[in-house]
Write a structure and sequence with these properties.
By secondary structure, the chain is mainly beta. About 0% of the residues lie in helices and about 35% in strands. The strands form three sheets. A three-stranded antiparallel β-sheet has the order 3-4-5, with no helix packed on it. A two-stranded antiparallel sheet has the order 1-2. A hairpin with a 2-residue loop joins strand 1 and strand 2. It starts with a strand and ends with a strand.
Length: about 80
Amino acid sequence: MFAGFVVRKDEIVVGYVDSCPHAGWPLAGFAGRYLSRENDLILCAGHAALFRIEDGACVAGPCPDDKLFPWPVEVRGGQIVVA
């Protein structure tokens, strides 16, 4: 089974596989929340790692050299589709 999520920041729309690169569990956890309180970073609920929305790179937490695995999506005719 595939699980992914899509995030929009300004004009940028990106998709990622819903899996922590450090531990392999879903990022949102029970809270169902993918973004930090400020809505500027992707949050791993398991250990509070933070990832940039634009490229999925880890910027805080136990995975400094890791990044989220991209899921290619794009906007066509106002709808998000798998690229």
